[in-house]
Each structure stands twice: as C-alpha cells, then as structure tokens.
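Q: I'm writing up a methods section and want to include an example of the input and output format. Could you take the sequence below and give the corresponding predicted structure tokens, formatted cleanly so I can copy it straight into the document?
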Amino acid sequence: MADLSTNIRLAVDSGKVALGVNKVMDTIKDNSAKLIVAAANGKQGTIQDVQHMSKIANIKVVLFSGNSIELGAVCGKPFSVSVLSILEAGNSKILEEA
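A: Here is the clean output for your methods example:
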C-alpha cells in the first residue's frame, strides 16, 4: 500500500485527478479517466457501479486497502474520499505500477 499511497499523492499533487463518485462517473463516461482508485470500505453498490462502468469503458480499477478516511488523507484532503480517478499521472508512476 505504501507505493500505491505515494503514487496517489504524487498524482494528486502533480497530475490531475477527480474526487468523488459523481465526478469519477463523469470521467468514466467521457473516457478521460486512465485509472480508478476505490477505497475498500466504499458503499458496496456505489463501488460496484463504478467497477461496472469502468469495465464497460475498459478502465482499470484498483482497490485501496485502507478506508475512505485514509484515502482522503493520502490525497491530502480533510475529508473522506471513497473513489478517485486519475486523469493525468503527473510525476507519479501509478499508471505503470497499478
């Protein structure tokens, strides 16, 4: 998880990401998402919807082993993040290593 956490933070700081279910679904629909990261404790129906839409769009989904509060902290946000999409990796290697 350390490498994933580091790469998520680098992507948030130097690349372009979308946080939250609605924005992530929009990035899947317009095919701008390159990778989806979902917290392990996300609402099951919501995560299944994201996974289903991602499969149709041929976008890989990675499960973050921590909870949504930890994912929010990794992103440097003072709130929980259940799902995020990577639009541009920036300085991270998340697209190669995921």
